Automatic annotation (TrEMBL):
The chain crosses the membrane at residues 6-32. InterPro entries: ARM-like, ARM-type_fold. SUPFAM superfamilies: ARM repeat. It comes from the Bacteria. Keywords: Membrane, Transmembrane, Transmembrane helix. It comes from Chryseobacterium gilvum. This is HEAT repeat domain-containing protein. Gene3D superfamilies: Leucine-rich Repeat Variant. The lineage of its organism: Bacteria, Pseudomonadati, Bacteroidota, Flavobacteriia, Flavobacteriales.
Amino acid sequence: MIDSVHFIFFVFLGMLSLVLVMIIIVIIYSIYQYRFSIRISGWSEIINKKITKVIVYEEDGEPADKDFEKANKNPLFRNLFLQKLVDSEKKFSGAAKDTIKHLFEQYKLQDDAFKKLSQKKPHLIARGIQELTAMNVQDSLPEISKFLAHASPQVYQEAQYTLVNFKGFEGLHYLDTIQSVLSEWQQLRLLGSITHIPENSDHLINGWLKSSNDSVTIFTLKLIRKFQILSVYSMVAELMAHSSTEVIVETVQTLLSLENSSTITYLIEAYPNQPIEVQFEILKAIKSSGDKSCIGFLKEQLLYTPESALKVCAAEVLFSLGQQEFLEQIAQDETSSEELINIIKHALQEKI
């Protein structure tokens, strides 16, 4: 019995000691975090002061700030300095932007950015690529190109963006062989970095339209829309037979944007064999075109299509084309189904 009491006492003592140790560790860590945050705050003030003097007051030629020069020997300070320069670069233009890049070069921060490219953690590599891109370090392109096939999306997407940012349309060559998916956000970034399409680029664009990677095809369709590349209209039209619904939806939008007189007729002919998502897009295209020659087709969809959602869309398009009287007649017709009457009333109530 006494042995059991002793055992319980020692177990309790051990647990109490463990709890105390954990409390001490938490306190020490909290103190460390607090001191570190104070240190970062102080560094931020020093860096902001430096950037402000150089940009606003143009005091780059005055004696070096001793606090700044001392802190600059710390790798963590340099990393924070680099981060703030990159953030500042996004906010300024013209002479101020050039001044920021001068600071970047003056303190040889490209060395710190390059070091991140040799790290194993994806977020560090991606950060290094972002920094070199923001500071327009063209010499980094060969090294960054190696990351196009990296396993991490965070890394290879930054590498893709850098190539296009530096080289424009020519930087899209990796689309020939890319296996990874281009996210919608990545597509928007790439489109924003391309300012013009070189002449005689149709063969490249046609090749991307035929890509087995659907995201490449979709991106190319958006590229065609942005720059109104009329010469590839027939190639785009062929994509109405594509196996991907998403690709066909983008194709409808692209065909409509290219403003060919035969587009609406072609879309109506393709309509019956398309999935419902594409049929919706075709009805929306008719509405955007304002083509009244489609009224007969729309009435047919309203009266006979089995899909209620398509009936609603057809009713709304008919209303937009000035067919309010026809819709009211159908709604008042005693032979019309209750569903059809409700659909038309809904369409009229929404639009009036």
